Amino acid sequence: MGDQLQQDGKFEYLETGGSGEPLVLLHGLFGGLSNFGSQIEHFRDRYNVIVPTLPIMTLPLRKVSLAGLVDHLAEFVETKGWDKIHLMGNSLGGHVAILYVLEHPGRIASVVLSGSSGLFESAMGNSLPPRKNYDFIKKKVESTFYDAAVSTKELVDEVFATVNDRNRGLRIIMTAKSAVRHNLAHKLDGIKAPTLLIWGNQDNITPPFVGEQFNELIENSELHFIDKCAHAPMMEVPGEFNQYLDDFLSRVTAGERLVEG
Asked: Is residue 215 included in any domain, yes or no?
């Protein structure tokens, strides 16, 4: 992934500039642009793939919340001048995506959610994990994946540094609490755009029943499970993930309606 981060005022993002419609990818609470390396390479020419950095660590403290992240995304899309976007989110990024879709339905061509929060999630809890406990953090990061080998030392080191920085740790907790407060069960019927749900069968953070609930509550949605896969399918099983996403986007672009449920 040789693309360079771009900076436009307060917006930091990667953009491939492909010939097709904008495909915007949103990372989770501890995620980053590298989470979508396979998707960037697979879709880069046929879509304009964009991965914005969600400013969890840089928003003014009074704005650290899901609402603050949604406002940031809305300003970003407005600044870029896109008419309609395909919007995908993993984990907390899925939660932000849903809230954006509900507020700006006219901007949405399709929605893709994977291991999304918004209904139920079991993560690090409402307080910081034991400071300086590297093994604890290592186990938590490994639990994101079915295959612990996907959890690289670089990834563990990054999360460890985050939770041991008081300022960043506070922002993580504030954002996580905001997510817990924003249960979306009563709002999901407001999503009318074609929606793809991709879930890991071994997801311990947003278990498979969560994907099933999203499928039941979002009218025009379809759900696919990937075996031997946990909370980050786009990283852990990128080939199968990309196949589902490719097929879905092709059908949406062709104007086909999904089979409900």
From this structure: yes
